[in-house]
Design a protein that fits this description.
By secondary structure, this protein is mainly alpha-helical. It contains 20 helices and six strands. The strands form two sheets. The chain has a four-stranded antiparallel beta sheet. It has a two-stranded antiparallel ribbon with strand order 5-6.
């Protein structure tokens, strides 16, 4: 149900964005007609009703879709009410041909809207308890010096919406001035979705290509629902259905050395905006100059103007949740403060997946210095866990334990939604470092709550450590055998050598105790 609600939030968003300029133009036309004739009695009764009702109803409907989009996407408690209201509107719109003379049957487009409305009624009628308490966590722990402001972060959805509406309005005027016909609802929605995906794909491709050219390696490439990632040393493709209408993406490119220059990172970061700007200008020129075939000139114009908007928005330093825009990351690197250190640290940690760099090669001084400033959220948690791995790889159990305590405090206060792979580190550390069966079992409850689907070497290593500290030696050995088998299949990279090292540490401990059932 949660995934369906997210999907419907994007449907509401598209409906809002498409209906807003239509509502504005239609309302102005009706009001102009009303002023022109001055005497509505000249109109038939149905026209007089429309003159009175439409200027009020259409803005109201558009507002409902806008609020539904916002509340459902942010998982507010009021999302259920607004979701039902928007879904009811979809049902009523779909039945409009049957209710209004000449009472024709709905076509395919209206049937699709009817289906979306019925699905929405079912989904939002289902009891939902959105985690309102989780939403403000990221905002409550905004890190000073990250180049963003609360005003921009909170106002960005409105600013972005207005920017896209302005671009869309320009495009509609361009279409009319060049004697093109505006697309219908279904065609327009599909065109917007495809153009958005293409723009995002080009943006992420710019990051990727320049990153590779400056000596970085690609670990992940995400465009909307299409997601490629390296997991356990192998490329995997995943289609995320709930992101089918999301015009967002990400690129994971990492350096391959500890002395990777910042200027190369900056080139990689700016490449996405540059790509959108260049392709947008080219597309606009092709459309205006009439170089491309007449049938696709309007699509090129839409692609061009939207590319320019996306490029401009990405240059603005802002934060959504715990993710930063290109503009914010560029500022952070140029400021050469704690955030610049953070990017260097995370880059080196990422390189351990594709190079011989191990946790013991990290700069622990930089990690601890940066963790004192960036001490909350997933970034703060990551820094403390990297410090934990450094000390563990160096054989310093006391230092590893101290970092794990600090990481646990961050997890409990501001990073409960972290990946399950990081939570298993708490299970292993509680068992191996502190020899605390109670603490390890408590952390294991967090692992189970996340319902892991990939039972990798980290997972079985945590299971083995838990059984070992609880005195179930035979089960610990069986789990460790699975962990070692999976770890041996991983490629020769520093991060995976560290996993094999942890397996050997636990194996040594198991060899010193008698086997029990």
């Amino acid at each position: 149900m949660h995934a369906l609600r997210k999907y419907l939030s994007w449907i509401f968003a598209l409906t809002f964005l498409i209906s807003l300029p239509i509502t504005f133009n239609t309302t102005l036309q009706i009001l102009n007609s009303f002023r022109e004739y001055q005497r509505p009695t000249y109109f038939p009764i149905t026209s007089r009703v429309l003159l009175i009702v439409v200027p009020f109803v259409m803005p109201l409907i558009t507002t409902v879709f806008g609020i539904a989009w916002r509340t459902v996407f942010q998982e507010k408690r009021s999302a259920r009410v607004w979701g039902i209201a928007a879904s009811l509107i979809n049902v009523q719109v779909a039945l409009f041909p049957l209710l209004i003379p000449p009472h024709s049957l709905p076509d395919a487009g209206f049937l699709l809207i009817l289906g979306l409305g019925l699905v929405g009624l079912i989904v939002f009628a289902w009891p939902m308890q959105p985690p309102d308490s989780v939403v403000p966590i990221a905002e409550a722990h905004r890190i000073p010096g990250d180049g963003t402001s609360s005003f921009i972060n909170k106002g960005l959805p409105l600013f972005t919406t207005l920017a896209f509406l302005g671009a869309y309005s320009w495009w509609l005027r361009w279409v009319r001035n060049n004697y093109f016909s505006a697309p219908d609802f279904i065609t327009g929605t599909l065109t917007l979705a495809l153009v958005g995906l293409l723009i995002v794909a080009l943006h992420e491709s710019g990051h990727t290509l320049v990153g590779i050219l400056v000596g970085m390696k690609l670990r992940a490439f995400i465009v909307g629902p299409f997601q490629w990632r390296i997991r356990e040393g192998k490329w995997e493709f995943h289609f995320e259905l709930r992101q089918i209408l999301a015009t967002s993406g990400a690129t994971g490119v990492v350096p391959t050395s500890s002395d990777f220059p910042d200027r190369a990172r900056l080139c990689m970061l700016t490449a996405g905006v540059f790509t959108n700007t260049a392709t947008g200008l080219i597309a606009l020129w092709l459309a205006v100059a009439g170089v491309v075939p007449l049938q696709i000139q309007s699509v090129f114009a839409l692609f061009g103007i939207f590319s320019m908007v996306i490029a401009a928005v990405n240059l603005v330093p802002f934060r959504t949740g715990e993710n930063y825009s290109d503009g914010a990351q560029i500022y952070q690197l140029l400021s050469n403060g704690p955030w610049a250190d953070f990017h260097r640290i995370v880059g080196l940690a990422g390189s351990s997946l594709v190079s011989p760099v191990r946790p013991r090669d990290y700069d622990i001084t930089a990690i601890q210095r940066t963790a004192e400033v960036i001490g909350q959220g997933r970034q703060g948690l990551l820094l403390r866990l990297l410090g934990h791995c450094y000390f563990l790889d160096c054989g310093d159990l006391a230092g590893a334990g101290e970092e794990l305590v600090k990481a646990g405090a961050i997890y409990n206060t501001s990073a409960p939604n972290t990946a399950v792979e990081q939570v298993t580190a708490f299970v292993f550390g509680s068992a191996y470092i502190w020899r605390s069966a109670e603490t390890a079992r408590q952390w294991w409850a967090h692992v189970e709550a996340k319902k892991p689907t990939e039972l990798n070497a980290d997972y079985w290593l945590a299971v083995s450590a838990l059984h070992w500290v609880e005195g179930e030696t035979q089960r610990a050995i069986e789990s460790l055998d699975k962990a070692e088998t999976l770890a041996q299949q991983l490629p020769k990279a520093g991060a995976y050598e560290f996993e094999r090292y942890l397996c050997s540490l636990l194996r040594q401990s198991l060899d010193r105790v008698p086997v029990t059932a």
